[in-house]
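USER: Write out one fold?

ASSISTANT:
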Amino acid sequence: MKKLSILTTALTLIAFLMMGFGQPILAQPNTPSKGMQHMMMQKQEKAPGHKMGMHGKMDHKSMDMMSDPVLKTLHSYGCPGFLLKSASKLNLSEKQIQTLTGLKLEFKKAAVKNKADIKIATLDIQEAMNADQPDFNKVKKAIKKINSLQQELRDNFLNTLIKSRKVLTTEQLKVLKTFASGCCKGMQPGQGMMQMMK
């Protein structure tokens, strides 16, 4: 009876995570399927003047990040990628562009490591659950690690945003405020993510 109770609790926890509370790790309800992502990326690559990511392409990691509601909300308020995309509207100097490019690269490197650590923790969950006798303590530990890593990514993103905003002049911050809050309103989930990652 005790084993059944533990198994039921574990399955409930996993179901809870898969319904969206583990975003973007175990489930991504607002993220298009891999096939859909591929089609969207191909469409964007063919469109003239569209650039995404650091090398003109949007990868699935960028889309995963933008499925996080915190990162998605903060993005247009000073994310270096958004500021670089808006360079002409903000009238950024070469020095500002160089600084923002460095901040963007620094964040991307940290995000890649963060996502890899999250993937490892996810694999730990699968390993623990696939055992003949599932190790629920290991599952709990991995879930805590994932939550901690997600928070670390959000904190890092916010710190990068703060540094990016400090690069701007008072006048540029006023200009940013006029168009940032309206960015991506009324778009479908996939469409909004594509626009933000250009």
In short: Residues 15-61, 185-198 have pLDDT under 50 and may be disordered. The longest helix spans residues 94-130.
